[in-house]
Amino acid sequence: MSRVIDLEEARLNLLAKRGFRNWEGHFGEEFGVHTKICDLSLKTLARLAQGKEKSNFYLYDLIICLRGEGSGFDLNQLKAKEKMAVIDRYLFLLDRIRFECMKRLGWLQDFPGEDNTIVDLIVRFESLAPGLQAEVPNIGNDHPERDNFAGMNTFEKEAFIRKMIPAALKEMENYSTTR
After folding, report:
1. Rounded distance, CA 137 to CA 112, Å?
2. First to last CA, the chain
3. Model-level pTM?
4. Domain boundaries, the chain
5. pLDDT tens readout for residues 88-109
6. CA 53 to chain centre
7. Confidence at 179, pLDDT banded by 50, 70, 90
8. Residue 59 in contact with residue 12, Cβ under 8 Å?
9. Structural Rg of the chain based on CA atoms
10. How many CB atoms lie within 10 A of CB 114?
11. What is the DSSP string of the chain?
12. How far, in Å, CA of 3 to CA of 88, rounded?
């Protein structure tokens, strides 16, 4: 009996395996095509959320691998258009990672894109990002500013959430160094 193989799915699995290889070596965890941001350990999440130095390499590496353009080491060799496409995905993914940090801190109830896999957020960026970026995360039920937040317009809500990021990063900094 013959088995039908979905070539696109097989290709994506191979690219994801290649893209996550450095993650597995560095973070000491297993990742795959079905990994969601909520599946990341607190330590991995905290490291990626910082968005600086080596942590950004792992996101760039995954994005470039999934796009079939090499590895994170090739970022500066990409043409301007391809480099911007990678950076757009990086910033989009970094937002979702930081939103997950705020969710784990109890500051957010949920956020747009949390049900998508990391691979899906990157591969389907063009179709997913516009809708997800237009939505504002929901503030946590126990957040002291919940009532004020409810009365804000969309732009004020987005600004409010973005102003929480530095405090969330500071709070998560402790988790990025714990073993």
Report:
1. 6
2. 49
3. 0.90
4. 7-177
5. 999 999 999 999 999 999 999 9
6. 16
7. very low
8. no
9. 17
10. 17
11. ------HHHHHHHHHHHHHHHHHHHHH-S---TT-BGGGS-HHHHHHHHT-SHHHHHHHHHHHHHHTTS--GGGGGGS-HHHHHHHHHHHHHHHHHHHHHHHHHTTSEEE-TTTTSBHHHHHHTHHHHHHHHHHS-PEEPTT-TTHHHHHTS-HHHHHHHHHHHHHHHHHHHHHHHH--
12. 38
Tokens representing 64? 């470039």
Torsion, Cα 130 134 139 141, to 10 degrees, reads -90
Handedness of CA 69, 73, 75, 77 (dihedral sign): negative
Half-sphere exposure of 154 (CA within 13 A, CB side): 4
Chain position carrying tokens 């402790």 = 174
Are 83 and 75 in contact by the 8 Å Cβ rule? The answer is: yes
CA gap 148, 102 in Å, rounded: 18
How far is 82 from 76, CA to CA, in rounded Å? 10
